[in-house]
Amino acid sequence: MKLSRILLCVAALLPLPTLAQDLAPADAIRAAIVGNTVQGAMVASGGFTEYYAPDGAIRGPDYAGQWSIDGNRMCFGYDGNPASCWAVRLNGQSIVWVGAAGDEGTGTILPGNPNNY
């Protein structure tokens, strides 16, 4: 087998990086998330359910924080710590939080504030 064919086969097996065109722009992030709840899990911290109020407040079952949109990334700040930001992929009611390491969390967008946070 020629070297070029071997390299092509190896390249086909490698994971593809997230393409910029797959990522949601700020207006789509805002339309999908603001005023709604996301229930999901982050690789680093586990499960979460959060309501994102129009005034920038995050409300969870036993905590609060602040959200913002910086460029085409959604940012989250908790307990006075600096905000962490993620790019977003949207597919209907599904969301993927994309960070420097790739996909770092997933969730489902629920309409409104069904948990009354």
Describe the structure.
The longest helix is centred in the N-terminal third of the chain and has 11 residues, at 3-13. Strands 1-2-3-4-5-6-7-8 form an eight-stranded antiparallel barrel. It has 117 residues and is of the alpha+beta class. Strand 2 and strand 3 form a beta hairpin. It has helices at 3-13, 26-33; strands at 37-42, 46-52, 57-59, 64-70, 73-78, 84-91, 94-99, 102-110.
Structural shape? globular
How far do the termini sit from each other? Answer: 61 Å
* Mean pLDDT across residues: 86
Q: Which structural class do you get from the secondary structure elements?
A: alpha+beta
What is the helix tally? 2
Helical residue percent?
Answer: 10-25%
**Integer-rounded radius of gyration:** 17 Å
Strands, total number: 8
Q: What is the H-and-E element order?
A: HHEEEEEEEE
| Spatial ordering of strands, largest sheet | 1-2-3-4-5-6-7-8
Spans of at least 5 consecutive residues whose pLDDT stays below 50 are 1-19
As a percent range, the share of strand residues is 35-45%
Q: Characterize the biggest β-sheet.
A: 8 strands, antiparallel, barrel
What labels describe this entry?
117 residues, alpha+beta, eight-stranded antiparallel beta barrel, 16% helix, globular, disordered N terminus
